[in-house]
Amino acid sequence: MRITVKGKVAVLTGAASGIGAALARQLAARGASLALIDRDQDGLERVAAEARLFGATVSTHVADLADPAAIAALPDAIAATHAAPALLINNAGVALVGRFDQMDAADFDWLMDINFWAGVRMTRAFLPALRRAGGARIVFLSSVFGIIAPPGQCAYAASKFAIRGFAEALRHELADTPIGVTVVHPGGIRTNIARSARLAAGMNPEEAAAGVRAFETMLKTTPEVAASTILRGVERGADRVLIGSDAYAIDALQRLMPARYWRPMQRRLGKLGGLVKAPAEQN
Amino acid sequence: MASLAAHLLNPVLRFQVKRRLARATEARELRRAFNASLPGPRGVRFTAAVVGIAGEWAEPAAGASPALTLLYLHGGAYIACSSRSHRPITGGFARRGVRVFAPDYRLAPENPYPAALEDGLATYQALLDQGTAPERLAIAGDSAGGGLALAVLLKAKQEGLPMPARAVLFSPWTDLAATGASTVENDKRDPMIKGSKVAEGAEIYLAGADPREPFASPLYGDLAGLPPLMIHVGDNEVLRDDSVRFDATARAAGVTSLLRVWPVVAHVWPMFNAILPEGRQTLDESAAFIRGAVGAAR
């Protein structure tokens, strides 16, 4: 199913920063109406004001996506301003730095709530409205860590594999309906997801800061480029969207070495690879 | 990701433009290096006119006259190019529902600073005098024309004229003192301009004036009160920091500014929109930004 963005209503989570903010601006420039969701009210209002410069009708909804009740209330809140949405973009995501044995169970749950369950709950909440829109598309932001799973990313990779699995099964279920499903696997995008990552409870902050700095050198693609790649995929009706040459390389490597892809990667990563590996005596 | 066309165009520009520009020392040579005559788009009517000074209108050939008027100032280092050479951009806006007037402001070295500024301001004043409502008026420009558009805004503000509704800048040249780190960092990467050429070109326009004079280098001006800005620049350009720093300075002064940094593309890539997807996308977004001044998106 192909849809043009122009004149449609788009529901977007994580709209206050990063890829979400860039998506909001570009959706507005393409003539969409927007329902923007984030827990950061100031950021949300700033992005909304920018989108309105393009003449877009924009509503803002401050909500914590870890809260199921907040998600359940969104369809009615959005229907107060907009017609039935034709585009749902599950963009919100958080990161958690540290090894599994350093991680609190509560932190793991928090990450799964936002990166996985929010996508499932948003889909449940908006599916009836999306059906009414005629043609619609649901977009899920997975990651290259929904293709490979590096050490130090137990929770993050689990959430990104999970959302991919959910999305792909949903796509096949909806194959005979006018609702399409796109899964996006961005490589390193220059956003503050790494800097604003929660640290695992047992992690040394200095060690973590060094890891974040090393990680940030791998963030090559800008949010604007990521956003325009996603919207091109949406308008093309793409099932799968990779962003950045690093994402293509990782995808190819995983096909070549389905289980042992981490070895050549670790050699390239050096310090970062060592940081998240459990010391030998603990093995 | 950048298009294949963008990757293919860059070596052509390197050979056709950068090489010639690097050797050019006189205005005549610069003009020859810059003056590529690209065809204007179809479906657009170009009409010679005098609005303050001589130039040309670009309007959709069919349909109702657009509600929005754009004053477009062409680039060319204040030395080269004309309303005609920039038809791919002025015509591109016309096709996207905006009527455009592009004045042929006086060029250096025959007419150095502040001749271009005077002519740009005269056109802005004339558009207002014709009854164009400022809330339906936008200003735009590329490269030197982008710096000139911003200088015209600063001068208009100083003279108490109303601000237009929007300003759009493509790779604007905002710092004639050439102090941006990108003039060095991107010297090799930029497919069109060598970093050392920036200060050299500025001398011809300035003819002894201070390169930090705000009406020549708007980066050094008081930016408070400017209208919402949309700035597009290429990541590999020697002029990248002219945009990045202007955006930061404007936002610090309370101005709404949207900065778009595009990978791979060359200086003022909307000129090549006939073959470059990024060029079309940049014009699409810029026209939508200007049309947004009158509300509902179309």
From TrEMBL, chain A:
The keyword tRNA processing appears for this protein: no
InterPro entries tied to this protein: KR_dom, NAD(P)-bd_dom_sf, Sc_DH/Rdtase_CS, SDR_fam
Gene3D superfamilies: NAD(P)-binding Rossmann-like Domain
Occurrences of domain Ketoreductase (ranges): 8-192
Record-linked Pfam families: adh_short
SUPFAM superfamilies assigned to the protein according to its UniProt record, in alphabetical order: NAD(P)-binding Rossmann-fold domains
Keyword annotations from UniProtKB, A to Z: Oxidoreductase
Keyword field contains Zinc-finger: no
Family in the record: Belongs to the short-chain dehydrogenases/reductases (SDR) family.
Protein name: SDR family NAD(P)-dependent oxidoreductase
Species annotation: Acidiphilium iwatense
From TrEMBL, chain B:
Transmembrane segments: none
Hydrolase among keywords: yes
Domain Alpha/beta hydrolase fold-3 per the UniProt entry, residue ranges: 70-269
Keywords: Hydrolase
Gene Ontology molecular function: hydrolase activity
Keyword Hydrolase: yes
One of the Pfam families matching this protein, by short name: Abhydrolase_3
Similarity annotation: Belongs to the 'GDXG' lipolytic enzyme family.
Protein name: Alpha/beta hydrolase
